[in-house]
Amino acid sequence: MRRPARRGFSLLLGCATCGTLCALFVLVGSLLFGFPERLARLGPPAPSLDAVQRVLLGGYLLLVEDSLDQSAGDPARSLELIVEQGETAGQVVERLSQAGVATDAFLLRTYLRYRGLDTGVEAGRYLVHGGMTTRELAQVLQSARPTEFLLTVVEGWRREQIAAALEQMALPIQGAAFLAESNLRPLGYSFSSELPEPPSLEGFLFPDTYRVDEESSVGDLVRAMLDNFESRVGQGLRDGFAAQGFHLFEAVTLASIVEREAVIPEERPVIASVFLNRLVQGMHLDADPTVQYALGLQADGGWWKAPLFLDDLNVASPYNTYLQGGLPPGPIANPGLSALEAVAFPSQTPYLYFRARCDGSGRHAFAETFEQHLGNACP
Questions:
Q1: Which long-range contacts (CB under 8 A, 24 or more apart) does 217-225 make?
Q2: How many C-beta atoms lie closer than 10 Å to residue 315's C-beta?
């Protein structure tokens, strides 16, 4: 059906070159056969078209009108189309054709031109698929979706590291705004009342990958992280925390230390058991990450100073668990699910000490006594 229609359209175009007389002939003939009423089914034509163009383009589209409401391409084909600044509608249609989303590029170009929609294809991101009709595809191309970015929050990051990652993305969300928003007490969350004064959401900004677009606000992003925490930390985990004698805030605080200490995932429950054993016996946690947290930003731009020196262990801070007993005032980072699970369901061990092995594997040597702990030191 489309091939004969194109020949008819070519004849009309050729006729148009004959001049005004031919154009008038086409117009008069179209009026006699109710052509304007039929054209109305196509939708309003572009104001920029003259009478002859409306008749020629509209006449072709009426000949293939059924095709406008059929799948424009292969329904199995989909495409995230990124239209660059300065790219024309014709270039966009050609890319859709090559992708199998619009197999009849001529039909789509003509429909866009007739409706004046070709000027509405702007730079941006479009999600399209071959199952769309030509009409639907033309409409979708009028509304670019906001450009999306993927923000990956790594397990064990502190708030400032998330803010730094935001600064590296071309988003309206600034790092300073994120830090300010994550220092507000949120409403409607189970842990809201447990936050200290002044409040901080450190520990509850759940590590994950988040989709952020140009229209996202800093509040949207923080709420997405908190909602993720609430959905992932279910009743089973909370019951596990209670079995260890912890409120949620305390459990997240310890999990943040476990997250920063552990390198090998399967060691997390063992490391959690060491800290729990020390708390039961009234010993200081002596956790290096709490000192690193207290020391803050370093001259090299890092947030976790390594290695630590003996003088560092004397830093005056409520977070320094070499000097302060019990848990620090709050989380030192944002733990992932496995660190939280390690606190809820720790291994049962007699260990009170651990230190990094000397083989560079990231594993730790565990000890029951201080003498054994000294024996585990690197030569």
A1: 217/173, 218/173, 218/174, 218/177, 218/178, 218/180, 218/181, 219/181, 221/151, 221/173, 221/178, 222/178, 222/181, 222/182, 222/186, 223/186, 225/153, 225/201
A2: 17
In angstroms, how far is the first alpha carbon of the chain from the final one? 85
**Cβ-count burial 185-219 (b if 16+ within 10 Å, e if not):** ebeebebeeebeeeebbbbbbbbbebebeeebebe
Tokens of 91: 């270039």
- Look up the pTM and report it: 0.70
What would the pLDDT profile of 59-98 be if each residue is shown by its tens digit?
889 889 999 999 999 999 999 888 988 899 999 999 999 9
The CA-based diameter of the chain, rounded to the nearest angstrom, is 108
Q: At what angle do helices 51-63 and 20-32 cross, to 10 degrees?
A: 50
Nearest CA among 220, 228, 232, 76 for reference residue 148: 220
* Domain coordinates in residue numbering, the chain: 2-68, 78-109+116-140, 149-232, 253-375
